Structure formats: structure tokens, C-alpha cells
């Protein structure tokens, strides 16, 4: 993991998600082929509850690197969404 990845991940983990997304926007303009940056963006979007944006970022990461950690994150998020939607109908 590069230093910029570590810094952004630390921001996300410490709750500075908006700051992390701002940094990600700058980094992605400079290096749009960095799969790990898209993974981190998806992780940040997921923390904010923006599940659609999170899945989109995870998919973009997967397209750039099929071994990206985004693969598992996307699957987990899709499982959560399927479970969540089923519960809505059982009330």
C-alpha cells in the first residue's frame, strides 16, 4: 500500500470521510488507473451510506484489478442490500 493510500485509509477509519473523498478526488484526477483509490472511494461512500456510489467505485476498482479488495467489499455490500430489502417486505 502506498503512503497516499495509507493516509486516505486512515482518514476514512478515523471518521474524516468527507476529507478523504476530497483527497481521493484530487488523486483520481492525477491517476485514474489506480484500482486501490477506487476501492478506498467505495469504502468512504459506504461509510456515508451512499451504497450505489460505493458499488460503482468497487466495480471500477475490479475492472482495473480483478484481485482488488473491492471484490469482497462489493459482494458484502450486495448481500447487505439484499437482506435489507427483504426485511422491508416482512414488516
Automatic annotation (TrEMBL):
Alphabetized Gene3D superfamilies for the sequence: Tetratricopeptide repeat domain
SUPFAM superfamilies linked: TPR-like (SSF48452)
Top-rank taxon, per record: Bacteria
Stored InterPro entries: TPR-like_helical_dom_sf
Protein name (Swiss-Prot/TrEMBL): Tetratricopeptide repeat protein
Species name: Alloprevotella tannerae
